[in-house]
Write a structure and sequence with these properties.
Strand content of chain B: under 5%
Radius of gyration of chain B: 23 Å
Strand order of the largest sheet of chain A: 2-1-3-10-4
Structural class of chain A: alpha/beta
Oligomer: heterodimer
CATH class of chain B: Mainly Alpha
Number of strands of chain A: 10
CATH topology of the largest domain in chain A: D-Maltodextrin-Binding Protein, domain 2
Radius of gyration of chain A: 23 Å
Number of helices of chain B: 12
CATH architecture of the largest domain in chain A: 3-Layer(aba) Sandwich
Strand content of chain A: 15-25%
Order of helices and strands of chain A: HEHHEHEHEEEHEHEHEHEHHHHHH
Number of helices of chain A: 15
Helix content of chain A: 40-55%
Helix content of chain B: over 70%
Distance between the termini of chain B: 35 Å
Shape of chain A: globular
Largest sheet of chain A: 5 strands, mixed
Chain lengths: 322, 287
């Protein structure tokens, strides 16, 4: 009998927990403005390139514009666009090629602020095409028939690498691109699984420390003013709440300017949301945090995307960027 | 995902197999005293191998840092509040998911177990839904609930519900007809029969289901955090990975392993307590 009672007690405890769960669930879904601030959720990946957003939030630049920002780092890049379209995220950070493809497929997305721009200088840029120590490959044209690691097929990686190969006089149609996560690329080069890899920070610094050699600054070669990634929102939010979108653009631009003017603070903020080794933080290469998006550079990108068959025809940039 | 472990219905005494066989009484005294010692030696040997392998260059220390470095990283991390928040979030997802699955499975299991026609009617649907791996629901979870804890709960509850539910159905079906008839002839009502006949019969099955589900709940709780990015240790692993912080990744993996061990110890203790009247547990205790 006591056993039965114990089991019933366990059952009761289970029920109590369930009720507690329901109770917990309610207070998180509030969504009410705190102190007159409008709550907005921004989806990003925990990478160095979004440091200005974190810095701006910490410095109160978003509060100045009446925004209470929640940064979400989950979900992965692939789910960001659907979550923007469904209105679950208000703003998100994404690379321009992904956004142009999505837009060309008819998804209602519009760019509201720049994210980062290449430095325009091959020796200091935030990303590069690298080959492992002791590789015979010394120039992009020699990648013909080689295996090259990129993070996503039919995206900014293969588009820019093909462009670099063409500029160097090579055959861009004969490259075997393989999808790998950035953290795995250096290891894959060491193992000889890939002949070259397109890496971004902090993995560029890690790769260089381990003896890799850069053979092309693919973004710089695409266009020295190229906006690599931008912040975007859904057309629905622009239509329903243009003031919030304006406020975000203002605050984001102020954050970009602050991050560009205060590199020490930008470095420091990394320790709050990444686990990058402090020694590597000292060596990191940064993109430029420009507030302007260079239209000419985006036109070059869309031309390349048409050439490579990522999109059917060029995009109207005036409606794509707000 | 772990459906295979849940396949066979336990034969009335889920833990009995351990206690059978003639060699047990003879060997019990010897293994009883040396077991903890052997366990400790095993752990030391494992840590020693782990420490040595990166030093020999068999595997690069870049991708497998030595045990000392990983454990030091874990110790440093254990002094930060962020780590304990992540542990708390992981355990919250685990406990809530398991509790919801438990209540739903017990209520539905008893209800449908008592109604053979309804059970027959739902069997095909259950057999279709049960093998769907919970991780296949990740895209659905992200679209419905984004990255908050409800995504974790969806995955955990889905996987754990079937594990417990199927055990309850087997348990309810295992009631001894003689006991049932006896209870009837003594004039016990439906509720009294459930309490005094069906429930004690089902309990060993139910506990087997809970033990399996407790392990699976932790796996899915971590999976959801790692892939969806809901708060918890899994998300910390993802952040460490995208920062190239290899020893942090290993430290967090060790932490999840420790959680798994603690959960298993806890559930086994609960099982022994709840089933202490049962022959399987009594047999263990007297041996």
């Amino acid at each position: 009998m006591t056993a039965t009672r114990t089991a019933l007690a366990a059952l009761a405890a289970g029920t109590a927990l369930t009720l507690a769960a329901t109770a917990c669930g309610n207070d998180t879904g509030g969504g009410t403005a705190e102190g007159g601030l409008t709550p907005v959720t921004v989806g990003v990946l925990p990478i160095t390139a979004v440091a200005p957003l974190y810095l701006g939030v910490e410095k109160g630049l978003f509060e100045e514009q009446g925004l209470d920002v929640t940064i979400e780092t989950g979900g992965g890049g692939a789910t960001t666009v659907p979550r923007i379209v469904s209105g679950e995220l208000d703003f998100a950070f994404g690379n321009v090629v992904s956004l142009i493809v999505a837009r060309a497929q008819g998804l209602p997305l519009t760019v509201v602020a720049n994210g980062m721009t290449t430095t325009g200088d091959a020796d200091t840029d935030y990303s590069a095409l690298v080959v492992p120590e002791g590789s015979d490959i010394t120039a992009p044209a020699q990648l013909q028939g080689a295996t090259v690691a990129i993070d996503n097929l039919r995206n900014i990686g293969d588009t820019s690498v093909r462009n670099s190969v063409r500029l160097d006089g090579g055959d861009a149609t004969d490259i075997d691109f393989v999808e790998l996560a950035f953290p795995d690329m250096v290891g894959a080069m060491d193992n000889g699984q890939v002949d070259a890899a397109w890496v971004v920070e902090p993995f560029l610094t890690i790769a260089l420390e381990q003896g890799a050699t850069p053979i092309a600054a693919n973004f710089v070669e695409l266009d020295p003013e190229l906006s690599i990634a931008t912040y975007f929102t859904s057309d629905e939010l622009i239509a329903s709440d243009p003031d919030t979108v304006d406020a975000f653009t203002e605050a984001m631009n102020a954050s970009l300017a602050h991050a560009e003017a205060n590199p020490d603070e930008t470095e420091q903020i990394l320790t709050s949301y990444t686990e990058i080794d402090p020694e590597i933080i000292d060596e990191l290469r940064w993109p430029r945090f420009e507030t302007e998006i260079d239209r000419g550079a985006l036109e070059s990108v869309t031309e390349l995307m048409v050439t490579d068959g990522l999109i059917g025809s060029e995009l109207d940039l005036d409606t794509f960027i707000r | 995902m772990t459906e295979t472990t849940a396949q066979g219905p336990p034969r009335g005494r889920p833990e009995a197999s351990k206690g059978t066989g003639g060699r047990r009484p003879r060997g019990a005294a010897r293994t009883g005293s040396s077991k903890p010692l052997l366990g400790a030696v095993g752990v030391m040997a494992f840590l020693g191998t782990w420490e040595a392998v990166p030093h020999t260059g068999l595997v690069s220390a870049r991708y497998l840092p030595p045990a000392s470095e990983v454990l030091a990283s874990l110790a440093r991390r254990a002094t930060t509040p962020g780590f304990w928040t992540a542990v708390g979030d992981t355990l919250l997802g685990w406990a809530l998911g398991l509790a919801i699955a438990f209540v739903a499975a017990v209520v539905l299991g008893f209800a449908l177990g008592a109604l053979p026609r309804v059970r027959a009617f739902t069997t095909s649907t259950v057999d279709f839904l049960r093998p769907i791996p919970s991780v296949a629901l990740i895209p659905l979870a992200v679209l419905m609930y984004g990255t908050d804890i409800r995504s974790t709960l969806l995955l955990v509850v889905y996987a754990c519900f079937w594990l417990i539910y199927i055990q309850v159905l087997y348990g309810v079906a295992d009631v001894d007809p003689v006991a049932e008839q006896t209870a009837r002839s003594y004039g016990l009502g439906r509720l009294a029969r459930i309490r005094h006949v069906v429930w004690p019969t089902t309990l060993p099955y139910l506990m087997t289901g809970v033990r399996l589900a407790a392990a699976v709940a932790l796996i899915l709780s971590i999976t959801a955090q790692l892939i969806i990015g809901s708060p918890g240790i899994g998300r910390e692993i993802a952040v460490a990975q995208s920062s190239g912080a290899v020893s942090s990744v290993y430290a967090l993996i060790v932490a999840t392993g420790a959680l798994g061990v603690l959960i298993n110890i806890g559930v086994r203790a609960l099982e022994r307590r709840v089933l202490r009247w049962h022959t399987s547990v009594r047999g263990e205790a007297t041996a």
